[in-house]
Amino acid sequence: RGALWAGWSGALDRTLEPDYFLRVFDGEELKEVELKSHSGEVFELREEIATCIRMVRGECKPAASGRDGLWSAGLCLVAEESIRQNKPLPVGELLKVL
């Protein structure tokens, strides 16, 4: 048994000085996890842009393929339709197309 406790706060969602933490409870002791990089939208956007530049330069591969994107979009569409119909829908047909 255990738990994770994460927190983030800032004056705005795109703040450069957020307060954040990650704590782990193993059932007996609560420990603070040292985070090696800043957390928040600004920092995540910077990392995404830097990764995109490295991909364009051929220095790394994309984290996801076009097929991954199609699969994600397809699952979202099936989920929406499932909500509209108020019943579970199979994703088997989606697998055949992709």
Per-chain topology:
Elements: E1 3-9, E2 19-25, E3 30-32, H1 41-56, H2 66-85, H3 92-97
Antiparallel strand pairs: 1-2, 2-3
Task: Write up what this structure looks like.
By secondary structure, the protein is α+β, with helices and mostly antiparallel strands. The protein has 2 domains: 3-56, no CATH class; 66-97, no CATH class. 43% of the residues lie in helices and 17% in strands. The chain has 3 helices and 3 strands. It has helices spanning 41-56, 66-85, 92-97; strands spanning 3-9, 19-25, 30-32. Strands 1-2-3 form a 3-stranded antiparallel sheet, with no helix packed on it. A hairpin with a 4-residue loop joins strand 2 and strand 3 (30-32). It starts with a strand and ends with a helix. The model has no long low-confidence stretch (mean pLDDT 91).
